[in-house]
Design brief:
Blueprint: H1 2-14, H2 17-29, H3 31-43, H4 55-74, H5 80-84, H6 88-113, H7 118-124, H8 128-138, H9 146-164, E1 172-175, E2 178-181, H10 182-204, H11 210-233, H12 244-270, H13 274-282, H14 284-296, H15 302-332, H16 340-345
Antiparallel strand pairs: 1-2
């Protein structure tokens, strides 16, 4: 038995860090498609006239699963020394970020999943990186390479093509003379909200340990979301939250998307460079589109092909800029500008969502 364990451990150690990163990216990329598939399974197994695997139930229970994983990973950071260093102002900004990125953004993205296809949500969600770069330059006065700026502009036009070149198939809204799908509009709002919360996080609470930040954000976000949904939809909306059928599927969801995804990502981060992690993370949209095709049978339409191609080009250009910037910083300062904790944060929660 001892020899077998040693061989197994030796085999695990031989797996390169990049392999763990790419496995995590595949898992995170599949999260939206898996969520939609779960709701379809629930629709085929109604309890009374209710879908036990409703999007609200998935979000609430999924967050609880994520919270358990985060506590397992980070519980040691919740010590008196760390907590005493966090001021009332820090808690205020941390709460704002938790409400924006932990409650409102996930709630809107799950609503968007009910209104439009997964590919549109993934592609429209790529508004977030250009917005973060623009806000970083304007608010944080950060220096960003021309490659990253140009790449973000190309990706932005790719998102615009995705939105404007296709006819909405669901609820529509009229904006500035254009008829847009409500699902796409919600996905764009999520990108804006997430970008704003990211900038607040960088500017005001970047010194807070990742464990405290992520656990607090997930816990408070879940509570706020629960009460918002309770107010909007009533208590009956969560009648099936303790349904064995729901928890059976959510335990599978939690084990794969949350536990395996986070475990692979953390394992990969420990043995790879920031540029390698950044490159892997940038491929999440492609993994999401592939998952939507394999799991849901969603074939990209012409608008998504054109928009997706520009977005991919933008990602490539941005990665060139990031690689050059990190190389320059290693030469001058001997370290990367992005910390491991920031790279972990980029994969947390439903952002790949």
């Amino acid at each position: 038995m001892g020899e077998k364990r040693k061989k197994r451990s030796h085999l695990i150690l031989k797996i390169p860090g990049q392999a763990y990163l790419w496995l995590a990216v595949l898992i995170f990329g599949a999260s939206n498609a898996v969520t939609r598939k779960l709701t379809e399974i629930g629709a085929q197994n109604f309890i009374g006239d209710r879908n036990p695997i409703s999007l609200c139930n998935v979000l609430l229970v999924g967050n609880l699963c994520a919270l358990l994983v985060l506590i397992t990973i980070y519980w040691q950071q919740w010590n008196q020394t760390n907590l005493q260093q966090i001021s009332k102002q820090d808690w205020f900004y941390l709460s704002i970020v938790a409400i924006l990125s932990g409650a409102i953004a996930p709630g809107l993205i799950f609503q968007a999943l009910a209104l439009t296809n997964v590919n549109n949500i993934i592609l429209v969600g790529r508004l977030e990186p250009p917005l973060i770069i623009a806000l970083s330059i304007y608010v944080l006065k950060e220096t960003v390479s021309l490659w990253e700026i140009f790449g973000s502009l190309v990706a932005f036009f790719g998102v615009a093509l995705t939105i404007f070149l296709q006819t909405p198939k669901t609820t529509m809204v009229n904006m500035a003379g254009f008829t847009l799908g409500l699902g796409e509009v919600l996905a764009a709002i999520v990108a804006i909200i997430t970008a704003i919360s990211t900038i607040i996080g960088k500017q005001k609470i970047s010194h807070i340990p990742a464990g405290i930040y992520n656990i607090y954000r997930t816990a408070l976000g879940s509570i706020i979301f629960f009460f918002i949904a309770l107010t909007l939809y009533g208590a009956d909306h969560f009648m099936d939250v303790f349904s064995p059928f729901l928890w059976k599927w959510m335990l599978v969801y939690g084990a794969i998307i949350v536990v395996l995804g986070q475990s692979f990502w953390l394992k990969g981060l420990r043995s790879t460079t920031t540029s390698e992690a950044s490159l892997a993370g940038s491929m999440t949209p492609l993994a999401g589109i592939l998952a939507a095709y394999l799991i849901l049978g969603e074939v990209p339409n012409q608008a998504q092909y054109w928009g997706g191609s520009l977005i991919l080009l933008g990602i490539i250009l941005s990665q060139i800029g990031i690689h050059k910037q990190l190389a320059d910083q290693r030469k001058s300062a001997g370290q990367n500008s992005l910390t491991k904790e920031q790279m972990i944060e980029s994969a947390m929660g439903f952002k790949g969502l």
